[in-house]
Amino acid sequence: MMIQNQSYGFTPPGGSSEIRITGAQRYSPGQTKKSDIWLVSCPEEYAGRLRKLGQGESYGSYAEVLKVLADAFFDGDVSRVVISKPAPPAEPAVEHRAPGSVVSDRPHYQGSQWAVNQELFWALPPERYDFQTRRIGEIEDWGSGPIYTFPVHMAEKEWVDIEDFIEVFQAAWSLYGALLPAPLDKEVMERTVRQARKVAERGY
Q1: Domain range for 117
Q2: Which string of DSSP letters, residue by residue, matches 54-88?
Q3: Average pLDDT over residues 42-69
Q4: Which of 15, 37, 101, 136 could form a disulfide with 97 if both were Cys (CB 3.0 to 4.6 A apart)?
Q5: Is the model more confident about 154 or about 31?
Q6: Which helix (H) or strand (E) segment is 48 a member of?
Q7: pLDDT tens-digit readout, 82-94
């Protein structure tokens, strides 16, 4: 059984149609354990490029999908792959960036309130907040164990959509985690998400 839970799009440079990327969870018969799978629906005008790379239509991770698209359309440069949600994108953050911020004109991954690229993680207008993407790996102790600092810190702010922040934060780890000194600790991430939601719910 397969349950689709997220959907995104990617339009190659000069293209007229969109490649659809769908995240899903697959359950084996008689088992409760799930596995993640990413499905890529590619219009025929692009399909030839993926076939030349020996690629199919399903992948084990979001990062793998990005690498395949980068190899097919940008000579392996993952930073140039811009994934969007089906909804219209928000106003470009570059026009409203916080004073002193340095950020490219296009996000690599964009949610409804937050966006990220290799250099910066920032709030979309009308909000003004950003920090360097390399800081997503910062950890602090939270009594019950270590957590990633930023999600819980941002959950304390009333204006923050914590679910969108978590989505973009996790996407940032998928995109740039390999560039950080320490790899993703899944246990720490799970604890961080739980704690951030608790803090957002109670307001402190």
Answers
A1: 93-202
A2: T--SEES-HHHHHHHHHHHHSTT-GGG--BB-SSP
A3: 75
A4: 101
A5: 154
A6: helix 44-52
A7: 776 543 333 333 3
Cis peptide before 89, with omega less than 30 degrees from 0? no
Q: Are residues 25 and 60 in the same domain?
A: yes
Q: 127-165 as b/e, with b when 16 or more CB fall inside 10 Å?
A: bebbbebbebbeeeebeeeebbbbbbbbbeeeebbbebb
Cβ count near 70 (within 10 Å): 16
- Cross-strand pairs, 58: 39
Q: How many domains does the chain have?
A: 2
- List the helix and strand counts (H, then E) for the chain: 5, 10
38 — pLDDT class (breaks 50, 70, 90): confident
What backbone phi and psi angles, to 5 degrees, belong to 115? -145, 160
Token pair 């409203």 is at which residue? 96
Are 104 and 190 members of one domain? yes
Asked whether residue 180 carries a pLDDT value surpassing 50, the answer given is yes
Nearest-Å Rg of the Cα atoms of the chain is: 18
Last residue of a domain, one of 32, 53, 80: 80
The rounded distance, in Å, linking the Cα atoms of 100 and 17 is: 36
